[in-house]
Amino acid sequence: MKKNKKKTIIIGTGSGIGRALAFKLSGEGYLVGLTGRNPEKLKALQAELPGESVARPLDLRDPREAIHSLGNLIMYMQGMDLMIINAGVLFRNEELVWAKEEETVKVNVAGFAAMANSAVHYFQKQKSGTLVGISSVAGHRGSGRSPAYNASKAFMINYMEGLRQKLFGTAIRVIDVRPGFVDTDMIRGNRGLFGVISPEQAADQIFRAIRKGKKKVYVPGWWGPLTYCFRKLPEWIYHSGYKKYLSWDTRVRARRS
Residues 6 or more apart from 214 whose CB is under 8 A from it? Predict the structure, then answer.
């Protein structure tokens, strides 16, 4: 393990954007720390990467244990220059089943904050580093289908802004990445999606944002002005339109089942 090699840890590399980022950063010469719930998936990914990597199980549903696992991984890798927090869960939860809401909060809120907090403390001691959080355009408005998910992304957006304020004037960067629709397991099967991009396209755009030192980036970029307009919609228009969408989506699913 080369001491002068760039080092990144990606929280959540089992599939989707996290997996694509692992390939991208490995190809760019990084030593990549792979994390996720499934050790077998991590080993399989490690065998496919073009460069050197380290794999460690890590489960954000237990934030305290995740902090401990992260600390051990940083020590084993002899440092960290870049942390990307990608892990998250999304449930369709029209029935408001509490177990689904609770797991979303545990992983997307408490788990995310635990990893971001740990990374910032490490980077402060090092006096440099980059933290990247994969939030979502969903964080700009609520969702009756997945209330906790959209709220969790809003938490991430505001938490990262708070960290940027805290770290203002230092050499530590905090980058908020807000993807739109990316072709992952989270959204497959949903109707009415548009502008869907591949995880590899998302990874390329995220890596460009890291190199440029952006503070926040929409993926793809046109989501920026679109969400600005979306946020300006009066609540009654937003709720009425969303209800019509859900009704249409339910009918389509019923016909196809």
Answer: 175
